Amino acid sequence: MSTQIELPEERYADELAALAAGDTGPRPPGWRLTPRAVVQFVMGSAPAGRGKIAITPKYVGDPGLVERCVVTLAGQRGLMLVGEPGTAKSMLSELLAAAICGTSTLVVQGTAGTTEDQLRYGWNYAQLLAQGPSEDALVASPVLRAMETGRIVRIEEITRCLPEVQDSLVSLLSERRIAVPELGDKSVAAQQGFAVIATANLRDRGVTEMSAALKRRFNFETVDPIADIDAEIALVTRQTKLALEAASVDRAVDEVVVEVLVTAFRDLRTGVSREGWTVEKPSTVLSTAEAVAVSTSVALGSAYFPAHADGIRTLPGHLLGVVRKDDAADAGRLRGYWDAVVRRRAEDGQRTWRTLWQQRDDLG
Ligand SMILES: Nc1ncnc2c1ncn2[C@@H]1O[C@H](COP(=O)(O)OP(=O)(O)O)[C@@H](O)[C@H]1O
Ligand SMILES: [Mg+2]
Fold first, then answer.
1. Which one of 60, 118, 298, 361 is most buried, by most CB atoms within 10 A?
2. Pocket of ligand 1 (CB under 6 A)
């Protein structure tokens, strides 16, 4: 048996061990690696010499951004990653946590129902009733555990939490201590290495409403979609290959499908085709993460259904599924893209685009 999702600290355990072995420089208190090695883990690198291993490139984007994230955490400030959905904010926070403190599992998922207890501590009520408040009955939140052990805690989608819940982080981040008045003068002080990485989606619109006090405790970094088309194609190809392997499907990734798919996603995401023609943008986010999901579905469909061996023919149906989930009008925008961009490329004699144009009816 193997788990469905491996944690980065498990999946890349050999890379982390190799980086730690040769990592002799000064490091921030409580860190497992030097800042440089952390950036190397996230961005990847070729083998550094004989007998050395290659570090897989993981985050595709600006190394400067990753360096700034690392510097923020080294300075014990909160790090706030903001951006559109599907730009690898969560992935980046996991990778940083795994490299810096060895675990990415201390996490609080922010929702409208997140309570202060989930950021501080709660009680095991059976024990509380039986014995009264005791260390044993205390249920530490991931934040408290991160403080006690000098690790990184991740707070996902922080702007979805109610303002008063967000504000309970303010005192915690400035005092770097959680008091437990129920246990007399017990309080837990943050050990060296403790830091917070929060993520926030711009689509949630809550970022500007975050209280000034909380904003001041974080350094903000905006994570943008992948700028370079070749890098995005390479990433989607790599991820699709991994997904096929995970499904035990012995099949090569159809590179033509990935190229067409990434091109269409970028045209629709940016509102301009690569030729410079205007495209009406759907309101749905067409992120790289969505491109990976569609590419994987197309590849698995081709593997499991021989009738769909030519994956390109199933692409319109998958795209329709993606754009229609937020806004029914997006289906019309997708047809507009077909009638303008796909048709012109087909008329220019581009074979795959001709196939796509022939599937126009699949868009309803
Ligand atoms: N710049 C990028 N580098 C690497 N992977 C990316 C990038 N952008 C998107 N992805 C893909 O998107 C997936 C999901 O991203 P995720 O971290 O959940 O996004 P977010 O938290 O921003 O919504 C990643 O696992 C990866 O497959
Ligand atoms: Mg996320």
1. 298
2. 59-61, 83, 85-91, 199, 226, 235, 239, 288-289, 292
C-alpha 290 to ligand 1 mean position (Å):
9
Q: How far is the CA of 230 from the centre of ligand 1 (A)?
A: 16
pLDDT given for residue 50 in this prediction? 73
Q: How far apart are CA 336 and CA 338, in angstroms?
A: 5
Considering only CA atoms, which of 289, 291, 296 is closest in space to residue 91? 289
pLDDT of the residue at 204: 76
| Cα 274 to middle of ligand 2, angstroms | 28
Report the CATH superfamily, name and number, of domain 8-222.
P-loop containing nucleotide triphosphate hydrolases (3.40.50.300)
| Burial bucket for residue 254 (CB in 10 Å: 0-12, 13-18, 19+) | buried
**From 11, 59, 87, mutation site for ligand 1 pocket: most ligand atoms within 8 A of C-beta:** 87
CA separation, residue 356 to residues 56, 64, 195, 239, 271 (Å): 34, 39, 49, 23, 19
Rg (CA), the chain: 24
**The model's pTM:** 0.94
| pLDDT score at 140 | 96
pLDDT digit string, tens, across residues 46-82: 887 777 899 999 999 999 999 999 999 999 999 999 9
Whether 172 and 213 have beta carbons less than 8 Å apart is answered as no
Rounded Cα distance between 87 and 334, Å, is: 22
Which residue's CA is minimally distant from atom 12 of ligand 1? 289
| Model pLDDT for residues 144-191, shown as the tens digit of each residue | 999 999 999 999 999 999 988 998 899 889 999 999 999 999 999 999
